[in-house]
Each structure stands twice: as C-alpha cells, then as structure tokens.
Amino acid sequence: MIDLKALRDDPDVVRASQTARGDDPALVDALLAADEARRAVVSRADTLRGEQKAVSQSVRGATPEERPAVLEKAKALAEQVKEAEGAQAEADTGLRAAHLAVPNVIAGAPPGGVDDFIVLEQVGEVPSYDFPVRDHLDVGSILGAIDTERGAKVSGARFAFLTGPGALLELALVNLAMAQAVDAGFTPVIAPALVRPEAMEGTGFLGAHAAEVYKLENDDLYLVGTSEVPLAAYHSGEVLESVPRRYAGFSSCFRREAGSHGKDTRGIIRVHQFDKVEMFSYVGLADAAAEHQRLLEWEKEFLGKLELPFRVIDVAAGDLGSSAARKFDCEAWLPSQERWLELTSTSNCTDFQARRLNIRIRGEKGPVPAATLNGTLCAIGRTIAVLLEVHQRADGTVHVPLALRPYLSGQSELKPA
RNA sequence: GGUGGCGUGUCCGAGCGGCCGAAGGAGCACGCCUCGAAAGCGUGUGACGGUGCAAGCCGUCCGUGGGUUCAAAUCCCACCGCCACCGCCA
C-alpha cells in the first residue's frame, strides 16, 4: 500500500507512476476521494463516541430522579454511534479497496510495457558451438539427469524428476548459493512452502497473480510461488529494533502457470514445482535503492561463479509487480533457443509491501514502515537447464564450473552414466 | 482426532461490568549520587487514526471477529494461536 500522507501532498507523482505503468491514473483520484470520505466519517463518529462516553459516565452519578432521562439520552446516543460506526466501517472498507488497487509508485523504472526494458550491461560473450547444440532436455536425458516423461506420468505435464547427476547438481547449487549468502551475512532459512491467506495477501500475490497460485481448499492454505512470501511475512506485524536484516530462504516453489499454455513446454524451464534460494532484505527506506544494487551484485556474483554469460535488464514499469518500484532481471543465454532467459530477478518494494504486512522499524520519532527487497540467488531448475546447455560438449559431457566442483565431489565434468 | 488450561503494554504479571491505556515488577532513557561503574534514589517510557503551525486535544486498541449493555480487558458466541495430557503417526 502506498503512503497516504505522501499521496495527499503530491498526487501527481502517483498519477505519473500510473501512467508509466500503463495503469489507470483515475485510480489515484478514487483513492483520494475514498480517503477524504473516510476522514469525514471518522470525525463524526469520534465526536459522537465522545459524547456518548460522557453521558454514559454520568449514569452512575445521576440521582434516581434524573436517571431515567440520562439513560434515555445515552440510549439514543448509542443508536447514533452504532449508525456512525457502521458508516465508518463502510468507509474503511472502501478506502482499503481503493488503497489496494493502487500499485507501488515506480522509482526509476523505464516507462512502458514488457518490451520497453533497458539493457544495462552484458557480462560475458554469447557462446558459439562448433557442433549442433542440444537443448537441456537432450543433454539431461543423455546424462540421466532429467526425466520429464516419468514426471508427466506421475504428476502430469510440467513436472520432472531430477535424477542422478541432476539431483546432485541441484544440491550442489543450493550449497553454493547458501555458502555465498552466509559469507555475505545472510541468515540461512528453510521456509514453509504452505502459508496462510494473510501471508499470500500481504505480499500481494492474490492480486494480479491470483490465478498463478495453488490453493488447498480443504485447509485454507496456499502453496508459495516463491519464498519471498514466507520471508516477507516472517516479520509481519513486528517492530524491528535493527536493520538491515538479510535472509536467504530455501524452499520449493509452486506455480500453476495458468495462461502460459504452449510456452516453454519442453524440459524444465517452466514447471509447476521447482526449488529456489531467495534473498530477502529488510532495510530502512533511505537505504533501499543501495540495497537493491547490492542484491543485484550478489546475483551477478553467483552467475559469474557458474561461468554463465548473461545480461542485466532494467524492467519497464508496465512489467513490474504491484509491489515493486523497480526491478532488475539477469537473463542468461539459452543456446538452444538463441535467446536470453530470465534466471534471476530482484525487486525493490520500498515500503509498499511492509506497509501492507505492518512491518516497521523502531526510529527516533517512533516506528516507520520498513523497506523490503527480494532477489533470486538461484532458481534451481532453470539454472540447471542453462548450465547443461551452455556448458555442453559435443560428446554429451558437460563442463562443471570451478566454483561448483567442491560441491560435486570435485568432478570437472558430468558424464553419461 | 479427544479432553483440559491459557492468550493483557518491549518482557513478566495483576485486573469487582463504570473512576482502566490499564496496578506492580523487569528492561530501557535521562537525572542525582560516584574518580568511574555497580547498587540506590527520582523522573520518564505503546501504537494507530482525527484535528491543530505547535504544545495539545479527541477517538480507537487488552489474540481476531461478532453479540449483550447506557457502559466490556472484565459477560456470551465463533474463530485463530499457544501449552499440557490421551489417542494416532513418525
């Protein structure tokens, strides 16, 4: 939720943000109106409550003769208060709805839609191969690392088994990622993958992304699509005594992939279930932009260790989630399709998400909303796919990046069994 | 799954239906004392909303949501969470 006081002071900033996102600026005026309406109603209810309270108090001190009259007055006021509180509840609901409808104010993101991103840099060269490249599923099948057929048999389309070297590769990546995170001062976390509705709502995933989310009807729980959800909700309702706080969460991630039929259907680039190591930071608002850069640097560092060529893009406003003020993606080269594929993504949610989750920091003049940021350290399935493709050799073996070897019994290459 | 108990401020902990935002302690901050510190003493110490330039004033908040009442932390109902024991499963 955006800061209402800031909105009152300068609604044009928010209107401009809406326009840059390709979203409706009228939502801003609806919010302003709802805010105004609520304040009027609150004043009225406050006054009535005050009167009623006073009259109520006087019941005790009233003489037996005046008592009936006082009671009658109190009763009448109670009626009015009830009515005023009903109006207040309605106004509150209206304000909340209008409030939730307005996404975060963008901070530096280029205006426009999905294709209007800006390439900030490219690290490494696009690789070339002097043999016909196989896609990751072919490479993975030769190695006995990926089994999508049995995945489909057991669980359906977009499910896969990671087997043998594939399974070991996953564990190696997790360990490498966690080791880097711990070195950087993150607290490692194994997070729940099932969360309550409040956690899902608070992080904003029941808005535009609602169709993407698995829900367990019988238990009123949701399967998370990213550990951002439990990591953000981790401190919900709390006042933090100190920041920064950095968590590196490992969890499985579940996505329905509704609306992506026919897209990335081969292999494990887009599946319903994968594991991920996610970075999550709580910082002061003033430090948020700097933290965002740090998260990006950690992501780049990790991709560097994997010896993968990639580029960094500044995602356009229209392609940001509702909580994000700015987002950077790292896209690795996918040889089989000769295109860039999103491997990591880091978002600065400023104080938008924290306001919704009621996460504050103890400040000089009382608590203030925290700023929250998230960034992928390693989305394992996809990373495996890219690793297998980029590091493949003509004979079907796969080069193991140096940094990964300590976690793979020192192997310098993956070989078919 | 069953039974019983509990849920109050940063923490512990009291709280006859009105005088309770809430006793008492601890912690923390400041001051006194001290060469300095500890101890001791004194003072202060929640959040949110409204209003005001401000000091302030008003309202709301005792797990959450309803209800009873002129009046609810206190009574009733539902839900959530925690603890204990039993059963079941690892």
Topology:
Elements: H1 4-9, H2 11-21, H3 26-61, H4 67-101, E1 118-123, H5 136-143, E2 146-147, H6 148-154, E3 161-162, H7 165-183, E4 187-190, E5 194-195, H8 197-202, E6 214-216, E7 221-223, H9 228-233, E8 239-240, E9 245-254, E10 273-283, H10 288-305, E11 310-314, E12 326-334, E13 339-348, H11 352-357, E14 360-363, E15 366-369, E16 371-379, H12 380-390, E17 398-399, E18 413-414
Parallel strand pairs: 4-9, 8-14
Antiparallel strand pairs: 1-11, 2-3, 5-7, 6-7, 9-10, 10-16, 11-12, 12-13, 13-16, 14-15, 17-18
The structure holds one RNA strand of 90 nucleotides.
Low-confidence stretches: none
Range of strand content: 15-25%
Q: Using the CA coordinates, give the radius of gyration.
A: 27 Å
At the fourth level of CATH, the homologous superfamily of the largest domain is: Bira Bifunctional Protein, Domain 2
Q: Please describe the biggest sheet, giving its number of strands, its sense, and whether it closes into a barrel.
A: 8 strands, mixed
Shape: elongated
CATH-defined architecture of the largest domain: 2-Layer Sandwich
CATH top level of the largest domain?
Alpha Beta
Task: Report how far apart the termini are.
Answer: 53 Å
Rounded average pLDDT? 91
Number of strands: 18
- The structural domain count equals 2
H/I helix tally:
12
CATH topology of the largest domain: BirA Bifunctional Protein, domain 2
Give the H and E element order: HHHHEHEHEHEEHEEHEEEHEEEHEEEHEE
Task: For the largest sheet, list the strands in their spatial order.
Answer: 1-11-12-13-16-10-9-4
Give the proportion of residues in helices.
Answer: 40-55%
Structural class: alpha+beta
